[in-house]
Amino acid sequence: MGWELWSRQLDEEELVVNGEYDEHSSSSSSRAAGMNGIGHTKLVDPLEDPLPGVGTYEDFNTIDWVREKSKDRDRHREITNKSRESTVALLHSVSDAFSGWLLMLLVGLMAGALAGGIDIAAHWMTDLKEGVCLNGFWFNHEHCCWTSNETTFKERDRCPQWKSWAELIAGTSEGPFAYILNYLMYIIWALLFSFLAVTLVRAFAPYACGSGIPEIKTILSGFIIRGYLGKWTLIIKTITLVLAVSSGLSLGKEGPLVHVACCCANILCHLFTKYRKNEAKRREVLSAAAAVGVSVAFGAPIGGVLFSLEEVSYYFPLKTLWRSFFAALVAAFTLRSINPFGNSRLVLFYVEFHAPWHLVELAPFILLGIFGGLWGALFIKANIAWCRLRKTTRLGHYPVIEVLVVTAATALMAFPNSYTRMSGAELISELFNDCSLLDSSQLCGYKQPANTSDTGLDSLADRPAGEGLYTALWQLALALIFKILITVITFGMKVPSGLFIPSMAVGAIAGRLLGVGMEQLAYYNHDWLIFRGWCSPGADCITPGLYAMVGAAACLGGVTRMTVSLVVIMFELTGGLEYIVPLMAATMTSKWVADAFGREGIYEAHIRLNGYPFLEAKEEFQHSSLAVDVMRPRRGDPALAVLTQDGMTVGEVETLVESTHFSGFPVVVSPESQRLVGFVLRRDLLISIDNARKRQDGIVSASKVVFTEHTPAQPPEAPPQLRLRNIMDLSPFTVTDHTPMDITVDIFRKLGLRQCLVTHNGRLLGIITKKDILKHMAQIANRDPDSILFN
User: Fold this and answer.
1) Which locations, inside or outside the cell, does it occupy (predicted)?
2) 309 and 457, same structural domain?
3) How distant, in Å, are the alpha carbons of 129, 443, 507, 521 from that of 424?
4) Which of 55, 136, 262, 381 is the most buried (most CB within 10 A)?
5) In a domain, 521, yes or no
6) Domain span at residue 264?
7) Looking at the structure, do residues 243 and 150 belong to the same domain, yes or no?
8) What's the chain's average pLDDT?
9) Residues 40-57: tens digit of each pLDDT
């Protein structure tokens, strides 16, 4: 996100030279540490104490999981060994083991508190577009009317304390003038909120726009995007998320809450050395934070853990599972303590159904699954096409104007229809709602049965549709078309925008329409074969709210391709364990139907659109190529740039590093033998040489650079040697030239490698980087291989 900024940064840092950025990436391992023998007195070893900066990564680079895990194991072994020596060391060992759980507690508390604040502020500002409370401007509509004694059950939204803008300005709430005045105020507030949101994002934190989940998936796979999870991004995302949701745009706050929780985790990681200094350990915490984000977004702690496991995490050990569970629990508890909606629930659209469903209803549930899958596939194709248009045309140069135009169009079309005027969460709540006899909602505009007294309030019989319901169904049909079209152009703008709520709203509308249709069909045709035996006259057979819930799950599943986590989130939302089968049927159907049009979910599609180096675990490699076909150098390319273990001077090494743009270099015995010794990182090499020149006596351009264990003899007048064995990875990953590429791709995925060296009979032939694999896979799929870059 913030592409203009990225391209500028890349130009400044010269990370992309000739279209390539991560060529010979690194893997220097701390396993080489401690292997320095004591040699000649003139010998210089700059790394007896590790230098600051050695072993760290530059921006837009991939981490080396193997090296990071190895560093952590060494650190842990050292603490364990020391803990046997003294009580202080034992206490240090205990605090080190406990620090992970303490960090999870802090992440849960911070994310829960922020989510509560966002919920309260968004609810208040959404209502501000329609009017203001005279008791205190900080009350939203619902809270304003709670204390009033003049509200009736029929009109619980109307109370003298709450004034619409027309009443405040013109003194009347009826008539065309009042309507136009309210309409205008609605549009003005919407434009103000969205303008503030997009301006703050542009000025202070370009990374705060969008949903954040595609970038978090990429970061969790080992990529580094500095500032994406920083404090400015957190502050601006929290503020602008409230503004964007309140502006009435077709977006949700659930996706961005995952980004907010990950920002909290990243900032809190800096309090603990174990997580501050190790990128792989930090990613374990970020995986848990993703679970926290969904936990506070939907009030679904278990669903959050499963979401992190199924959808965003790349590396998810068992320890992370327990910690995610704990953090999600703490976050949900914190949110429950804040009680943002005043109903002891964690979400606005909590519902409880108790009516049983019948086997015959599986057919319409599967129909909803098919609709969800079709909508998901259509939405992904349309949204990616629109986002590509935004990137490749002048439209992308005017983000502020784009946001204002879309907001104005949304507000203009949304206000006349009460179902599009309300916020997404309120709409879903309305659609999930089951009708009781005293319900004043238009969706409950049925003709009342004559013998009301005989019918219990709880088991309400199916009734014929009345005028109110027909009006509501027309409005819902229009709302469905509006939501489908406007969400395509809204997702991906330069404001924080989640996709969960708009997708669920589309599905819930479709589900409610089908549910009411089924209900009326059953009412008028009790004697049909499919209804006979279980749906007798006067019984409550069909629950339209349940259809809305199943439709919401189907559409969200079609867009994101979530399955297990989605079903769990839905039944945690609704408390309806008996509806697991309908939810599973609809979710699975929607995934199958959507997969028939393309295997990618919306997040994977955005990752590919932005050119992030992400190896998708779900994508299978089916080509029969070998490592030698993918490695570089290819035929006709210049020879591989290598270092020799004891034959090069400091000047020659510096010339080699400056004349190439690779991120690391293999070390060989000699140019003739090409026998592999190890691998050294460009960044570590430059830092070590620079440090040696400043701090060590006698290091000049003619000094020999030595990677061997024992120092070779040299004439007495020669300058001292520079020993750099400590920064070399003595066990780089290698494959032979005839290794099939599907196995190589699996090695990259499972071990999180940055690069792998290719050998033939022990001689070094070439190198395969993660980017080479992604380019090769793009070529096989007939895509542009040069798109694997930060465009």
Assistant:
1) Endosome membrane; Membrane
2) no
3) 15, 16, 12, 29
4) 262
5) yes
6) 106-338
7) yes
8) 86
9) 434 444 444 567 777 788
